[in-house]
């Protein structure tokens, strides 16, 4: 069944309060729910009450304290219909259900992870706990009583504040939690178990003291210190930046080791995948630290954007996710280097969202239909959703944006809102008209901008023609012209941005051109000499740009654009273009990948100490093989791209050997480890220098030495990757893998790195390694992190291995999905997205990919999750 946006209608009934009582047993948990139900005004009194369920068995039912007659209701695993409803406007419904948390491998609803009871209810997991109006626009006040054996679960947590706790008979105990804020069921959470805790406090801007608690496996407490620090910084930042204060007396985070996603923003009780909480220098990389900081912030920020104001229905998912991603991006930009953060975001957007938007899984930021909502927690909803919010800020300016957001909070606090209401708040606060802009929410696909320009010396006029085109990735999708804000500068040969005396042909405010028509001819007056246009600074809109720019102009911008982001963008465009051209030449005629000038720019940046280390590291990082594939677009041969990538690394490694050696030796770790951005940048630059030295010399001796000497996981994992990817069969590599395994065999999230490094080693043979690793102790098909680290990394991060010409990589993935689907459909469906660009492959591989997917499709009992992705991918 397909759910459609236009079919939305409010529920007939509301649930004002929800009292839950859990008696926790690993295999036979009892849940008693008492709901105070209210019929919505205007709804006929005999309208049945229809509650959602999922794999539930009803163990007891009372309506207004009485057991209803046998024919007064019907119960099935996925629905409870009470036909015989009282005539009163309000009444109570008491429901008893029984669950087996230990057998719950879907990790939705109530399950046990590593001995800890925990819940995941977004999007539709609450209905796996009790029958309910499990939809985000039904807000209820929850009181939760938890009983458990004290020995099994000394810790009993739920949302809100603890109002009671105490001992019971036979070694049992209980706790009662009350959350005063009405919330939708997807924000409900319960945790019970035996965990260690780290405590701190935060004093809010109005002077209230909030207790902060992070729960982790016993013994891992020191590894939660960074997460705690990130939490306090997030709380402070949200007060300073958006005036948002925390609202309960306690804020808790629990780290669990089996979790389908990154983390979950349950009111006052966030639950996290432990890899996004736990870190120390021995076990976590700088990238892990940055992710922890961002995700802790993200979930915390949801308290206002998601919890206080939630979504009317799941079509509005980007209302909370896009906005909250935007907020966490801004937070990280303020905590770290803004340009570096922005470049990282753009790389991620292009790597994940652009291919999604160009392939069979494309959908609008606000989808209009779905058959399985879990498949819409996508890069488009999250990352493009964030870009859309960023564009609103670009269009309205900092102040207008803040005014609009303030109005949104003021108007909709305590409500379940829509995108229309969000847009309206910005319009009403600023007087702007965002009607055309709002198309960004409804039209799928990445707009293309084509630009041409010329300069007329006589009248001192610079003319730029910009055309926008939207190729709808979905047949029949709308594609009206969009409002696209293009940040720009006209860079003069004497360097610096030029001023103009007048401009016509498009609205220009400050440094932003507002495109609204299919084609604009923008004329700048008073321009003495031919400038080079630097367009889309800061990636002001999620579009692709086809500049007419010659290599020479790009090289000029890479050196002279006064905008730091613009310099990176120009270099990256230039480098990608030359790699793509090299891939188009036959192997014997390929020659060098880059021209001299491009190599020289690379090296000048590498050697320029006036730049931040992290910025230099990003500039020196070549586009990945998947990035080149995306640029080529169709008839992809991953082996050719890999060969070009290797050749390019070798060329630069040789060309810049002296500089890389100086960087590698000059940036040796000084003093003790610190995860801060500056220190991380220093490590990043040193490690990239090491990569080039290995590629240039075709020798990994230096990496072996770096592996042995590393005193932190960033350097260690980097060196191990070089060894495994460049010299897979040497004794040094085998010894290094063994040493790593010996040290971390009891640390699953660290072993995930070991799995991933091996799974991403280029070449067809890696498939055999991956198959062997599935039998390794330490691997488990039941744990999402293990599956993603091995199978996910292989299929999405190993272009030559996964796309073996014989199609065995596709067969392996589809078999793995078939196997996983019975236990955890969400994780299985997510793995399937590795096939989203299969239509761009060369014909031989394309056929193999199709066969593998058709084989999977022929299976009789696929989950709705996998079926949905598979059908759309094959269509
Ligand atoms: N709301 C969570 C977050 O973005 C993600 C939850 C996703 N859950 C799911 N079942 N798809 O922070
Ligand atoms: Zn989120």
From TrEMBL:
Residue ranges constituting the Peptidase M1 alanyl aminopeptidase C-terminal domain according to the UniProt record: 551-875
Any one Gene Ontology BP term: proteolysis
Gene Ontology molecular function, alphabetical: alanyl aminopeptidase activity; metallopeptidase activity; zinc ion binding
Residue ranges constituting the Aminopeptidase N-like N-terminal domain according to the UniProt record: 19-187
Membrane recorded as keyword: no
UniProt enzyme class: hydrolase
One Pfam family in the UniProt entry: DUF3458_C
UniProt keyword Metal-binding, yes or no: yes
Domain annotation Peptidase M1 alanyl aminopeptidase Ig-like fold: ranges: 445-545
InterPro entries reported in the protein's UniProt record: Aminopeptidase_N-like_N, Aminopeptidase_N-like_N_sf, PepN_Ig-like_sf, Peptidase_M1, Peptidase_M1_dom, Peptidase_M1_pepN, Peptidase_M1_pepN_C, Peptidase_M1_pepN_C_sf
Keywords: Aminopeptidase, Hydrolase, Metal-binding, Metalloprotease, Protease, Zinc
Domain of life: Bacteria
Chemical reaction(s) catalysed: Release of an N-terminal amino acid, Xaa-|-Yaa- from a peptide, amide or arylamide. Xaa is preferably Ala, but may be most amino acids including Pro (slow action). When a terminal hydrophobic residue is followed by a prolyl residue, the two may be released as an intact Xaa-Pro dipeptide
Xref: CDD domains: M1_APN
Annotated EC: 3.4.11.2
Cofactor(s) needed: Zn(2+)
Ranges for domain Peptidase M1 membrane alanine aminopeptidase: 226-437
Task performed by this protein: Aminopeptidase N is involved in the degradation of intracellular peptides generated by protein breakdown during normal growth as well as in response to nutrient starvation.
Family that this chain belongs to: Belongs to the peptidase M1 family.
Name of this protein: Aminopeptidase N
Organism: Oricola thermophila
């Amino acid at each position: 069944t397909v759910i459609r946006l236009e079919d939305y209608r409010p529920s007939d009934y509301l649930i004002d309060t929800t009292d839950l009582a859990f008696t926790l047993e690993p295999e036979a948990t009892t849940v008693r729910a008492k709901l105070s139900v209210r019929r919505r005004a205007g709804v006929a009194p005999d309208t049945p009450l229809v509650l959602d369920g999922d794999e539930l068995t009803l163990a007891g039912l009372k309506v207004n304290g009485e057991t209803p007659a046998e024919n007064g209701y019907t119960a099935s695993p996925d629905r409870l219909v009470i036909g015989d409803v009282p005539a009163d406007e309000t009444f109570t419904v008491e429901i008893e259900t029984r669950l087996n948390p230990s057998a719950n491998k879907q990790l939705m609803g109530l399950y046990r992870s590593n001995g800890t009871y925990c819940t995941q209810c977004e999007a539709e997991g609450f209905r796996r706990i009790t029958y309910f109006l499990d939809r985000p626009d039904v807000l209820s006040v929850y009181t939760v009583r938890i009983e458990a054996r004290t020995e099994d679960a000394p810790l009993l947590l739920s949302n809100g504040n603890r109002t009671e706790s105490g001992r019971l008979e036979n070694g049992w105990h209980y706790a009662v939690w009350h959350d005063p804020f009405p919330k939708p069921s997807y924000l409900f959470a319960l945790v019970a178990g035996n965990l260690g805790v780290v405590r701190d406090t935060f004093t809010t801007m109005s002077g209230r003291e909030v207790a902060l608690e992070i729960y982790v496996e016993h013994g891992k407490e020191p590894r939660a210190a960074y997460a705690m620090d990130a939490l306090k910084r997030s709380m402070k930042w949200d007060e300073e930046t958006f005036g948002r204060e925390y609202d309960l007396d306690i804020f808790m985070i629990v780290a669990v080791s089996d979790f389908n996603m990154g983390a979950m923003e349950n009111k006052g009780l966030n639950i996290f995948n432990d890899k996004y909480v736990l870190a120390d220098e021995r076990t976590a990389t700088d990238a892990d630290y940055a992710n922890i900081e961002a995700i802790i912030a993200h979930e915390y920020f949801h308290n206002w954007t998601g919890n206080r104001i939630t979504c009317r229905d799941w079509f509005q998912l980007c209302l909370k996710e896009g906005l909250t991603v935007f907020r966490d991006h801004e937070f990280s930009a303020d905590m770290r280097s803004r340009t570096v953060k922005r470049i990282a975001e753009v790389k991620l957007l292009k790597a994940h969202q652009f291919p999604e938007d160009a392939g069979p899984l494309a959908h609008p930021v606000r989808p209009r239909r779905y058959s399985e909502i879990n498949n819409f927690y996508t890069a488009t909803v999250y990352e493009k959703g964030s870009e859309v919010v960023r564009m609103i800020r670009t269009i309205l300016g900092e102040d207008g944006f803040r005014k609009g957001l303030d109005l949104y909070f003021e108007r909709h606090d305590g409500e379940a809102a829509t995108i229309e209401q969000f847009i309206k708040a910005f319009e009403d606060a600023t007087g702007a008209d965002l009607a055309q802009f709002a198309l960004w929410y409804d039209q799928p696909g990445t707009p293309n901008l084509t630009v041409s320009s010329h300069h007329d010396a006589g009248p001192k006029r610079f003319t730029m023609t910009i055309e926008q085109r939207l190729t709808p990735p979905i047949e029949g999708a709308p594609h009206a012209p969009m409002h696209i804000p293009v940040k720009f500068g006209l860079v003069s040969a004497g360097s610096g941005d030029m001023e103009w005396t007048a401009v016509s042909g498009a609205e220009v405010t400050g440094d932003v051109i507002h495109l609204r028509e299919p084609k604009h001819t923008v004329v700048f007056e008073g321009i003495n000499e031919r400038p080079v246009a630097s367009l889309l600074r800061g990636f002001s809109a999620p579009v692709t740009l086809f500049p007419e720019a010659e290599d020479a102009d790009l090289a000029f911008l890479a050196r002279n654009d006064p905008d730091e982001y613009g310099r990176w963008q120009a270099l990256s465009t230039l480098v990608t273009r030359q790699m793509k051209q090299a891939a188009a030449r036959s192997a014997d005629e390929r020659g060098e990948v880059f021209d001299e000038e491009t190599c020289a720019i690379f090296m000048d940046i590498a050697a320029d100490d006036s730049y931040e280390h992290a910025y230099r590291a990003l500039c020196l990082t070549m586009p990945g093989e998947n990035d080149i594939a995306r640029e080529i677009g169709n008839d992809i041969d991953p082996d050719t791209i890999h060969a070009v990538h290797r050749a390019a690394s070798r060329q630069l490694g040789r060309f810049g050997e002296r500089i890389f050696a100086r960087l590698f030796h000059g940036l040796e770790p000084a003093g003790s480890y610190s995860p801060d951005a500056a220190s991380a940048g220093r490590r990043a630059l040193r490690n990239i220098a090491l990569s080039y030295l290995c590629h240039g010399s075709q020798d990994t001796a230096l990496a072996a030495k770096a592996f042995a000497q590393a005193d932190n996981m960033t350097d260690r994992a980097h060196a191990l990757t070089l060894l495994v990817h460049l010299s897979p069969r040497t004794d040094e590599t085998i010894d290094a893998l063994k040493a790593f395994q010996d040290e971390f065999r009891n640390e699953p999230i660290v072993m995930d790195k070991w799995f991933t490094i091996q799974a991403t080693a280029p070449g067809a043979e890696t498939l055999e390694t991956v198959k062997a690793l599935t039998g390794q102790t330490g691997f488990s098909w039941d744990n999402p992190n293990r599956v993603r680290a091995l199978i996910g990394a292989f299929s999405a991060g190993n272009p030559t291995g996964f796309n073996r010409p014989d199609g065995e990589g596709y067969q392996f993935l589809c078999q793995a999905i078939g196997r996983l689907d019975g236990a955890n459909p969400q994780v299985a469906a997510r793995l399937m997205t590795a096939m989203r660009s299969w239509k761009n492959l060369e014909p031989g591989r394309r056929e193999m990919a199709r066969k593998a997917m058709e084989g999977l499709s022929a299976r009789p009992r696929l989950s709705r999750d996998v079926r949905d992705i598979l059908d759309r991918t094959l269509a």
